[in-house]
Amino acid sequence: MTLFGTSTARGYAAADATRLDRLYAETREQEWSEFRADCGKYLAELDQEEALGKFTLAELEEEEQSLDRLRRRYRDRRARDLLASPAATDAVSDLKLCQQQFAAYAEQIYSAVGSRPQD
């Protein structure tokens, strides 16, 4: 799929559309790469908190806010990624892993403090 190849504007050559498509794809790839790196940092943070035994509700809230930021960033990038870059597939897998790890961390905290959230 191409974003700019269907343009009917005058004065632009096919090479211009190809160049714009390439630049667009490179920008999306860079954004997804940054997002995936941030997911890796989040997972490392959760591992560190577990290793340190930081099983408090305050820590849980902080990690939940970080996960919410990742979710918002994912939605923002997905909305800009009109061509559904292949990197988006890896990014959604990384986000799901973050959510799973957060859920496991939350279970450890609830066990440690002896409470469950009220739904």
Structure description:
This protein is 76% helix and 0% strand. The protein has 119 residues and is mainly α. It has one domain. The radius of gyration is 20 Å and the shape is elongated. The termini are far apart.
Count all strands and give the number: 0
Mean pLDDT: 89
Percent of residues in helical segments?
A: over 70%
How many DSSP helices?
A: 3
Contiguous runs where pLDDT drops below 50 for at least 5 residues:
none
Overall number of structural domains: 1
Q: What series of H and E elements makes up the topology? A: HHH
Strand content: under 5%
The helix-and-strand class reads mainly alpha
Reported for the largest beta sheet, the result is: none
N- to C-terminal distance: 44 Å
Radius of gyration: 20 Å
Q: Tell the overall outline.
A: elongated
Helix and strand topology:
Layout: H1 14-52, H2 57-80, H3 86-113
Briefly, what is this?
This protein is an all-alpha fold.
Distinctive features:
mainly alpha, elongated, 119 residues, single chain, 3 helices
